[in-house]
């Protein structure tokens, strides 16, 4: 099925982007052409089925309709904020507890 193949490629892309950024995807922005074979409801239905029970199920999805252009396009990714303490801050915290 076309949708299954399409979603498999989307998930591979998510995987590669998380690996590159070392952060989890929080939100994905898609655009769908009004003149393509996909519509927002159809895409979201298949997306939700494909992500159910997977690591992708909690990602927020934003879908915009565009008058022309690619049938489906990922137009943006938002990642979770990575909170890392500086090593010197960790050392200071350990010293203050002593």
Structure overview:
- By secondary structure, this protein is an alpha+beta fold.
- It has one domain: hypothetical protein PF0899 fold.
- 44% of the residues lie in helices and 24% in strands.
- It has helices at residues 2-21, 40-51, 87-97; strands at 25-33, 60-66, 72-79.
- It has a three-stranded mixed β-sheet.
- Helix 2 links the parallel strand 1 and strand 2.
- It is elongated and about 65 Å long.
- The mean pLDDT is 87.
Question: How would you sum up this structure in a few lines?
Answer:
With 98 residues, the protein is of the alpha+beta class. It is 44% helix and 24% strand. The chain has a single domain (2-97), classed as hypothetical protein PF0899 fold, CATH 3.30.2320.50.
Keywords for this entry:
alpha+beta, 3-stranded mixed sheet, 98 residues
Distance between the termini: 61 Å
What's the helical proportion of residues? 40-55%
- The spatial strand order of the largest sheet comes to 2-1-3
Q: The CATH topology is what?
A: hypothetical protein PF0899 fold
Oligomer: single chain
Shape: elongated
Which parts are unreliable, with pLDDT below 50 for 5 consecutive residues or more? none
| Structural class designation | alpha+beta
Q: Order of SSEs, N→C? A: HEHEEH
Put simply, the count of helices is: 3
Mean pLDDT: 87
**Domains, number:** 1
Q: Judging by the overall fold, what is the CATH architecture? A: 2-Layer Sandwich
| Rg of Cα set | 19 Å
Q: How much strand content do the residues show?
A: 15-25%
**DSSP strand count:** 3
CATH class: Alpha Beta
| Most strands sheet | 3 strands, mixed
């Amino acid at each position: 099925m076309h949708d299954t193949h399409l979603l498999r490629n989307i998930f591979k892309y998510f995987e590669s982007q998380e690996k590159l950024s070392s952060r989890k995807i929080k939100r994905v922005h898609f655009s769908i052409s009004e003149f393509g074979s996909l519509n927002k409801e159809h895409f979201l239905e298949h997306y939700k089925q494909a992500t159910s029970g997977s690591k992708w199920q909690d990602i927020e999805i934003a879908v915009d309709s565009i008058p022309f252009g690619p049938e489906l396009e990922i137009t943006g990714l938002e990642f979770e904020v990575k909170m890392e303490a500086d090593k010197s801050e960790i050392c200071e915290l350990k010293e203050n507890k002593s």
